[in-house]
Amino acid sequence: MPGFQGFSPQVAEIIRNADRTIRYVVPGERRRLYNQWRVTMGTIAPVDSFYVAFFRDDRYLVVPYIFDEPQEYEPPSFQMYGSEGMAAWIRRYAKPYVYGMDNGSLLNKGHSFGDEERLSGDAIVIPLLRTSSDGQVVIGIASMQTYRSNVYTEDTAHAFQILARSVLVALARELEDEGHQRMLLTAGEMASDSSVSVADIIEDFGHKLESLRLKIDMLIKSELLNPERLRQDLTDLRELCERNQSEVAELLMVPSLDARALLGKLTPRETEIAELICIDLTNEEIASRLSISEPTVKTHVTRILKKFGVRQRSAVAAKLRPFG
């Protein structure tokens, strides 16, 4: 942030420790990753609500992590967002929003969760950024809010953004590891690299349900003589349910079979256009969005269809967006 003078020694130490912890979160434990981020921010400033969301396309957000006092846990969700709300603003401008910019006007236009009778007194909402060949791309948003007024400082906002980068590095490393493992399993067949089929997803979901069933079965068969042990077992079961819910929500962001391999065949511009085809934009609308001519769009679309081995635009969306 312009003019930022650096953290106090105490906050700097908190951030260093959190970054170290985030780096060592077990791959796949995404809820624990987001939770560590939220808990750390709570040691720097009050946090009554916190969420992490990723853009599915120009209409939907996948929200794998939501925290709100006093319930503490809210199930992950899949939300539509409008063109004038917070999500659209963050995606459009790719910069942080702070409550003081408009006294919460933009914030209060958005989706409500938790105690809907109370409005936040302060908030910071930041873009989650991924570096691509075209520069920084907004892939999601994260928000921390409190019912208290005027408590978030420049320190708070800067710390929030630094830890966002730590979280995104951990997620990128996890995806890279998954891709490497798949390449090894397929003996280097690049066509299968990093792709996930519907069968893979169903199998993974089946394993999650089986882990829950085994836990419940264990409790049913136990003698239940130790209240403390029972309480701990039930707490573990609840945490397993919460983790699985978050992971299932994030499946909505998984490409269809061979989608990543298919995208790998496209140029950066063709990839952009393929994504816009998936949200039902016409050639004219794509041309306007990308500031190029309509004939140029038609040429790119023809090449995309040929590379995908399909004849209709709808088939492009079917291959890249199997879940809607």
What does this structure look like?
The chain has 324 residues and is an alpha+beta fold. Strands 3-2-1-6-5-4 form a six-stranded antiparallel beta sheet, sandwiched between helices. Residues 186-195 have low confidence and may be disordered. The two termini are 38 Å apart. Helix 9 crosses helix 10 (294-308). It has eleven helices and six strands. The longest helix is centred in the middle third of the chain and has 32 residues, at 154-185. It has three domains: 9-181, Beta-Lactamase; 198-253; 259-320, Winged helix-like DNA-binding domain superfamily/Winged helix DNA-binding domain (Arc Repressor Mutant, subunit A, Orthogonal Bundle).
Kindly report the name of the CATH homologous superfamily of the largest domain: GAF domain
Q: In total, how many domains does the architecture comprise?
A: 3
SSE pattern, N- to C-terminal? HHEEEHEEEHHHHHHHH
The mean pLDDT is 81
Shape: globular
Query: How much strand?
Result: 5-15%
As for the CATH topology of the largest domain, it is Beta-Lactamase
Counting helices, strands and paired strands, the structural category is alpha+beta
- Rg to the nearest angstrom? 22 Å
What does the largest sheet look like?
A: 6 strands, antiparallel
SSE map:
Elements: H1 9-23, H2 30-44, E1 49-55, E2 60-68, E3 77-80, H3 86-93, E4 97-98, E5 122-132, E6 135-146, H4 154-185, H5 198-221, H6 227-250, H7 259-263, H8 268-278, H9 283-290, H10 294-308, H11 313-320
Antiparallel strand pairs: 1-2, 1-6, 2-3, 4-5, 5-6
